[in-house]
Specification:
This protein has 603 residues and is mainly α. The chain has helices at residues 3-23, 42-48, 50-58, 76-88, 99-108, 120-130, 136-146, 152-155, 158-173, 187-196, 204-207, 212-224, 233-243, 259-275, 285-298, 302-314, 321-324, 340-356, 367-385, 393-401, 412-424, 430-437, 447-454, 461-484, 498-544, 551-558, 566-578; strands at 29-33, 36-40, 67-70. 59% of the residues lie in helices and 2% in strands.
Length: 603
């Protein structure tokens, strides 16, 4: 049929449709679409809809041709109503909200040029190409509407065209897009600059309305067009915050989420993790910690959780205490409050990066300072979990042994964690308490920590002896250094000020007191040895001789046993005499406790 004849036929059909509408001709066909019913006329429908024409021509003579049922048209009754209006020539507005539905409904009803000139398919395609796909926000809206029209939207390539348009326009809008890959080696420098001032493009919020599969395809298309992967960080953060909202990832208790919703969020989270940039510093540690909590809560794949743990280990030097306080989602009440196993794996990943040189350090990062920050962070973490009675001794020791020694400048943090653990576990045996105290190096304790440890009844006797011995060695070294250093000669007519003269007297007094303290320590050690010997003799006398006149029995009965606390009290009295640093001497009963700072302070 020539184009002229088609135009004439279309014009005639249009006039006929207008006449039918104006004369209010009674309907001769009823179309059921879902739960909606439309009383229409065969002529306007058959003139433009190939699908209805096939139904009418293929119906049997016995069947009622005045009733048509359409069950699976894309867009449902709303889309069919717009298509019917088009058949009748009734004007309506095409927009980004309904163009996807119109295009898919026209494809389903076969409203092509084979049946009418400038049919609905042609009109919808013209609007898409000239209006909808020319704007980024309109393309995102059309793609979002197309998600409910599958698989017809895929068959007419509506989804793929929207994705290509979005990828092209985002690369034009964003400064993260670079078609050349020659500067890929400088990615980390750029990432660090961007991490200081994260940039979120205006279109990132619009992408959060997409379904996760469409969102993933858009990001992949953007990277194929040259969009840098580290630039996806802010987009992924926005999408994760919106799609994972409502999860109880910061507390314990039974799960308050339906299985279907849990599965959907699990798929979303695993997809987001797979899209995370590989460059260091592209994502913040706090965001990675939030994803890891959600991954544990939703029970994602092991690979997903291990990936997040490795990423946190790579940037552990930037973490804060709250990032490591990951709740234990056991939901049984028999486990510890915090997931120490996950933190232990994160620390092992950090140490692995340090040892093998995997961590990128070409940009001048202070690795020593970074390791010192990690050491302080882990000591604070141990002090936080030490108050939990469900933390086993093996876990506590295993985590403490992983902290690098070079990261611990002082042992005050470890001492605080040990003291809190001993306080929270009062039923520990002497052997277990010795194991816990062996985690700290008494030589690295500060003066304040030594003063506290010397009066700490929770510590074993051997640990207190070590603390006092090393403190005495430190005092002796300081006095020796001060005495060995030559003082500048005073002027001829000058007289020593009273402060300097009292200082020299104090040094002399310290020397004498240190010598007395050393002798006292030696005496205490000898008394301890004698006490042990006497104990052995008592135990052996009960088996060797039962005669009351036996010399062994008489010797053991005549000498009274040494009190257990005489050593501690004697050394404490000697230390109290020194007191050159303003430390309050130990008085046994009436000592004052230092003020508590939070619940994990030393007391």
């Amino acid at each position: 049929m020539s184009a002229k004849k088609k135009d004439l036929l279309s014009s005639a059909m249009k006039r006929t449709s207008e006449w039918i509408s104006s004369q209010e001709v009674s309907s001769d066909v009823t179309v059921h679409v879902g739960e909606a019913s439309f009383s229409l006329h065969k002529f306007p429908l058959l003139s433009k809809c190939g699908f209805i024409k096939k139904l009418m021509s293929g119906s049997n003579k016995d069947s009622d041709s005045s009733v048509i049922k359409i069950l699976d048209i894309p867009g449902g009754s709303e889309a069919f109503e717009l298509a019917a209006k088009f058949c009748y020539g009734i004007n309506f507005d095409m927009s980004t909200e309904n163009i996807a539905m119109l295009r898919c409904a026209a494809e389903y009803l076969e409203m092509t040029d084979e049946h009418s000139v400038e049919n609905l398919v042609v009109r919808a395609e013209a609007y898409l190409n000239e209006v909808a796909l020319k704007s980024l926000s309109s393309s995102i809206t059309v793609l979002h509407k197309s998600e409910e029209l599958l698989p017809t939207a895929e068959r007419v390539k509506l989804v793929s065209r929207c994705i290509d348009a979005i990828a092209y326009m985002t690369c034009q809008e964003s400064h993260f897009c670079s078609p050349s890959s020659s500067n890929s080696g400088n990615n980390e420098v750029v990432v660090q600059q961007q991490s200081k001032q994260p940039v979120v493009d205006w279109w990132a919020e619009d992408l959060t309305v997409l379904r996760i599969d469409s969102f993933q395809r858009v990001l992949i298309a953007m990277m194929a067009r040259g969009f840098k992967q580290y630039g996806l960080g802010p987009v992924l953060m926005l999408y994760a915050q919106k799609s994972l909202r409502g999860l109880e990832i910061f507390g314990k208790g039974m799960k308050k989420i339906e299985p279907k919703q849990e599965h959907e969020k699990r798929v979303i989270l695993e997809t987001i993790v797979s899209l995370l940039p590989r460059e260091k510093n592209a994502m913040s540690v706090s965001f990675l910690s939030m994803l890891l909590r959600a991954a544990i809560y939703l029970e994602t794949t092991v690979a997903c959780r291990l990936d997040l743990e490795k990423r946190m280990g790579l940037q552990l030097g930037q973490a804060v205490l709250d990032d490591l306080l990951i709740p234990s989602y056991s939901f049984t009440g028999d486990h510890s409050l915090f997931d120490t196993d996950t933190v232990q794996r994160i620390l092992m990943n950090y140490l692995e990066f340090e040892v093998e040189g995997v961590r990128i350090s070409n940009n001048g990062v202070d690795l020593a300072g970074d390791m010192e920050r990690v050491g302080k962070l882990l000591e604070n973490y141990m002090a936080e979990i030490a108050s939990d009675r469900n933390v086993s001794l093996q876990k506590f020791i295993g985590l403490a042994e992983l902290i690098p020694e070079q990261s611990r400048v002082t042992e005050d943090g470890m001492y605080r964690a040990v003291d809190i653990y001993l306080k929270a576990h009062p039923n520990m045996s002497d052997v277990e308490r010795k194991k816990v105290c062996s985690l700290m190096d008494c030589q690295k304790l500060s003066r304040e920590a030594c003063a506290h440890a010397a009066q700490n009844d929770r510590l074993p006797v051997q640990t207190i002896v070590q603390v006092l011995y090393y403190e005495q060695q430190r005092l002796r070294g300081e006095v020796t250094n001060d005495s060995d250093s030559p003082a500048p000669p005073p002027p001829a007519a000058a007289v020593l000020p009273p402060k300097l003269s009292s200082y020299n007297d104090e040094l002399s007094k310290l020397k004498r007191e240190n010598q007395d303290l050393k002798l006292e320590l030696l005496k205490m050690k000898m008394k301890l040895k004698e006490f042990e010997k006497e104990s052995d003799k008592k135990s052996s006398s009960s088996t060797i001789s039962t005669n009351p006149n036996s010399p062994i029995s008489t010797a053991s009965m005549d000498k009274p046993p040494l009190p257990r606390k005489s050593f501690i009290n004697s050394v404490s009295r000697k230390l109290g005499k020194l007191n050159p640093f303003g430390i309050t001497p130990y008085s046994g009963r009436g000592r004052t406790k230092p003020p508590k700072d939070r619940r994990h302070s030393i007391s």
